[in-house]
Write a structure and sequence with these properties.
about 525 residues; 6-stranded mixed sheet; alpha/beta; 15 helices
């Protein structure tokens, strides 16, 4: 067992005023299964890149192990090559037989290594890369969000695989995956970094207790500060009143006073002023201590949304519905039977490629009455009906189109910019991001843009296609709480088991071209 020591690590991107890490120190063991938790934009992926020496930094990272990183970056020309030919490029010195052993554990057929990498599904690419990653010896592995875009079966497969391994840092926002696979957590708090044994749930339970205690202590400090401020104001008033009597007095009213009294009053006033200053110093100490208690507390703000009520109870109805793309022989799916009623939150399940995204795009086209688009691009069987005048707010899983300023984005969608930016702030996006081109946002920040745009749009039906990819766990909890509080009508494609269990009122499974 070796250790990785981080000592006084400081880093910020060139040309940026934001400090990602400021004199951070901690130690981790290389045989841990370490989960890495933190808000979007706090520096999780950046830290992994620092371990790989991709960026210059100040401070010290001391380790005797080699690091390797998932996902491997693939160039356009490499996507045309077979996986077997890419193994050496991904991990120099890697032996094919070791990769095949790891692929067997991941339950993926060896034949995928002999197909062009670009033709593989997201799940197949992920499994090949993980097999290559874990086929080395004595490496400490950096696994960055391995389950994004994977269907539920593939997630379960990857979860079981990682559970059997050790010696890695896992960056993930999937609570179910973290609970199953890790035995320590590395947490980027607002003002500090902490290392703790346990999985996500045990850490969250400890954090909840710690935050509750800090809040109670904070209330005590507030009461003490109020008392000190009141006493300070009263003492200052007394001192000022006494000070005003030093010079000038009425010989008739103040017959017992003389000019010699002035020195006595001055000394008394000076003592009172000294007492006031001591109180003010104590108040400052109390305030400083109070702020120290609260600086690391995550207090997600309750979000708001304004859904519309439709005059019809059933908003979407499919009867033995099938869909194929123009020119294709086979249908993407067939025989789908489903209804979406008002106030229902329907989670749509199915393997990657089963047609979930195709179905929700078809619903959007029908609702927008784009008959020409339907007829030219799609071939349908059965029936798909949407309520007349249905307004849909749609979140795509694709974020590549997000470019330009937030102001231009709001103008293009007729969104109130102030409400939109306020919602992004509530999702913990820093104000400094608002001045940047959205093209330079992280994937998590781009997803927050799409979700915020949907939430500020009044609609009868909210259709979200894999909205939580890259979204941090705190924001996921905020969104869960919002949905449960406002109960909008929703049709969601999402593979986060914990999220769907918490918010879904109904599930529809599309698998092997059959709806159940």
């Amino acid at each position: 067992m070796a250790q990785i020591q981080v000592i006084d690590l400081t880093f910020s991107y060139e040309g940026s005023s934001d400090t990602i890490f400021d004199r951070v120190s901690f130690t981790i063991d290389t045989d841990w299964k370490l989960g890495f938790i933190g808000r979007n934009g706090k520096g999780k992926t950046t830290f992994l890149k620092l371990l790989l020496s991709d960026y210059e930094y100040t401070g010290t990272i001391r380790s005797t192990v080699m690091f390797d990183y998932f996902p491997y970056k693939m160039q356009t020309d490499q996507m045309q090559q077979c996986g077997a030919d890419l193994i050496e490029q991904m991990k120099p010195g890697c032996e094919l037989w070791r990769v095949l052993c790891e692929m067997d554990k991941l339950e993926v057929d060896a034949e995928v290594l002999y197909r062009p990498f670009g033709t593989l599904s997201h799940g197949e690419r992920t499994k090949v890369m993980l097999a290559v990653l874990f086929s080395g010896e004595n490496d400490f592995l950096l696994v960055d969000e391995p389950t994004n875009h994977l269907d539920q079966a593939s997630r379960e497969n990857v979860k079981a695989y990682l559970k059997s391994k050790k010696g890695f840092i896992l960056v993930s926002h999937d609570r179910d995956l973290l609970d199953a696979c890790i035995n320590h957590v590395l947490v980027l708090n607002r003002e500090s970094i902490e290392v703790q044994s346990g999985n996500f749930s045990s850490w969250w339970e400890n954090k909840t207790r710690k935050d509750a205690f800090s809040q109670m202590e904070n209330e005590k400090h507030k009461k003490e500060i109020d008392k000190l401020k009141k006493a300070s104001r009263q003492a200052r008033q007394w001192a000022d009143k006494n000070e005003s009597t030093k010079i000038g007095f009425d010989p008739i009213k103040d017959h017992d006073r003389s000019i010699a009294t002035r020195a006595y009053i001055g000394a008394k006033t000076k003592k009172m002023q000294s007492r006031v200053k001591q109180m003010e110093k104590r108040i400052d100490r109390e305030i400083s201590q109070k702020e120290g208690l609260l600086q690391d507390i995550e207090t997600p703000v309750d979000l708001k949304m304004f859904s519309l009520k439709h005059h019809k109870e059933v908003l979407v109805r499919a009867r033995q519905y099938g869909l194929a793309y123009a020119g294709a022989q086979a249908f993407v799916f067939e025989g789908v039977d489903m209804e979406v009623h008002q106030k229902e939150r329907v989670c749509l399940y199915g393997k990657n490629g089963s047609g979930k995204s195709s179905l929700i795009r078809a619903i959007c086209l029908h609702a927008n009455q784009e008959e020409a688009n339907i007829e030219s691009h799609l071939r349908e069987e059965g029936t798909l009906e949407t309520a007349a005048g249905l307004t849909i707010s749609y979140v795509s899983q694709d974020t590549s189109f997000l470019k330009g300023s937030i102001q231009a984005f709001c103008d293009s969608r007729a969104i109130d910019e102030s409400r939109f930016c306020a919602l992004l702030r509530q999702l913990d996006m820093e104000r400094v991001q608002f001045a940047k081109d959205m093209e330079n946002f992280s994937e998590g920040q781009k997803k927050k843009v799409l979700i915020a745009a949907s939430l500020v749009t009044s609609a009868h039906l909210y259709i979200w296609d894999e909205p939580l990819n890259y979204i941090d766990v705190f924001s996921r909890m905020q969104i869960e709480k919002l949905i449960l509080a406002y109960q909008p009508t929703m049709l969601i494609v999402e593979h986060d088991v914990r999220f769907c269990e918490n918010i879904a009122t109904k599930t529809v499974v599309i698998d092997d071209k059959v709806s159940r």
